[in-house]
Amino acid sequence: MTLLNVDIKSAGYDKEKEIIHNIHFNVKEGELIGLIGPNGAGKSTTIKTILGLLENKEGEISFRENTKYSYVPERPIFYDELTLWEHLDFIAAVEALPDKEYKEKAKDFLEQYKLTEHAHEYPGKYSKGMQQKAMLILAMITSPKVYIIDEPFIGLDPNAMKLFLKLIETEQKRGAGILMSTHVLDTAEKVCDRFLMIHNGQLQAAGTLKDIREQCNLPDGSLYDCFHLVAEGNPDE
Ligand SMILES: Nc1ncnc2c1ncn2[C@@H]1O[C@H](COP(=O)(O)OP(=O)(O)OP(=O)(O)O)[C@@H](O)[C@H]1O
């Protein structure tokens, strides 16, 4: 079942300058989709367009009816005057989450991510990795049907990375669809079901690794080889 359908004809920050063109894909239940591309390719712009943050947009973005989604930005954003628990309470209040259920879930996440002892501190003062983990907890607490995650791996230590991947898998099994932009291609190759390869604001290749290899004419290539070909035009350099 399709949860999110993206049909961007063009989008950009200023009326005169379009940044992305003809980006079409969907996210289905239980799928993890990797949004891949070099710096400045248009990944964050695609995400911002999906989130409705860009006014200059031609095309259609449609979430399945009543689909709740969570966005995890590349750079964590917190309220200065709220502790992590207060952030969780705030989200629970806005989303009208059942009290007992969300508290149990929150405690479980905090324990897993080793943030229990820091839950009453201000996340603005956490280390980078702790902030990233806190953002993930805030995203997961509402049990959304769709996740939109901008580069989750930077700043996570190896244990946190493993935990994140495990939680993502659990969320997929629950039926959540995930769109995740990342530069960590070896991990993406292992965990993503499909890929969207963007360069110069356009979709250059899309599909499973097999599809991408065929489109790049690299039958045994890794995701990195295909990325390199798309980004640089030569897989061997
Ligand atoms: N706020 C902005 N205003 C104007 N142009 C922007 C803005 N943000 C990004 N751009 C431009 O849009 C283009 C695509 O940038 P975008 O941030 O989408 O790339 P990206 O693929 O997410 O890159 P990275 O891997 O470096 O995060 C770049 O040319 C960039 O200069």
UniProtKB/TrEMBL annotation:
The keyword Signal does not apply. Keywords: ATP-binding, Nucleotide-binding, Transport. One of its GO terms (molecular function) is ATP binding. Residues 3-225 form the ABC transporter domain. PANTHER family: ABC TRANSPORTER ATP-BINDING PROTEIN ALBC-RELATED, ABC-TYPE TRANSPORTER ATP-BINDING PROTEIN ECSA. This is ABC transporter ATP-binding protein. It comes from Cytobacillus solani. The lineage of its organism: Bacteria, Bacillati, Bacillota, Bacilli, Bacillales.
